[in-house]
Write a structure and sequence with these properties.
This protein is of the alpha+beta class. Helices cover about 40% and strands about 15% of the residues.
Amino acid sequence: MSRAPDVDYFATSSRPGWESLPPALHEALAVALGTQIASVSSPVSSGFTGGFAAQAQLADGRRVFIKAAEEGLHAYEAYQREAEVVPQLPKAIQAPAIITTAHVDSWFAVVSEFVEGRMPGAPWTVGDFGVVAAACEELAGVLEPSPLGGLSRFADLVGDDVDVPAQILAGEREMPTGLQDWLPRVLPELAELAKLAPEALTGDSATHSDLRPDNILIDNVGTCWTIDWNWLALGPRWVDWVGLLPVAQHQGIDTFTAITRSPLTADVPKDHLDSFVAVIAAYMMKNTEAPPPPGCTPTLREHQRLYAWTFLDWLAVRRNWPTVEV
């Protein structure tokens, strides 16, 4: 493959319509909200799950955002985790507030405040990059040390991914397809970088841990909102910021200069930053040929290839990797 895959992040999901949800769930939500649900828009088309997610107009004039999923789908546990975590976040964090939840038979629904906003990074602009960078600094300021207890360590969340490059080298895992032709030549150094993860990813900051552009909204006055807080973990304060850089670099943003100037990363050892990027690349390289998890769309695998590609490209510049065979 000669270039990175294309992914339209405005059309990555396949979600059920409101009318397909159980009537009992409709009724339970109306009771929980204290008013009737007057109308519901078409489901959003971003994200990678098959969970219901759409804006709703309430009879009392409020606009809210409803997400719902049936037990057995990835979104079912994700929505419950979000409903648990968001009320515990510091008030300084711009995350849509949880209004109520409903649990009926095998279905769970969570209702949050509606934010009129747009996804950045489609593609990244210098202006949006600056807004999101500032938001990442603000998040780090209120999440270190973690104000929430009982979080898993980020290093533990990616523990199995550390070994992926080494497993490919050893013939225990197949080389993923659809990536750079120079990947086999850099696998040994990628494996060494990944092994640094237990040291590099230690920290006492609460991190979003899944901060992609489709989990960010910039509203009409330029405020940056973060959504989908279901992967909260404990790690370095710079994780969320650095995770945004490789795709932004791919789209023309000078992230190599930004990383030397940001207060989040200016003093972080180079190998620690590169180890994190290597681990995420390894995670994205894993299971690219497998069917998506239950309730997730096939586009998830193209997203993984795009992220693996851009994270590897980012490392290639940082590590002076030979990307042309001589």
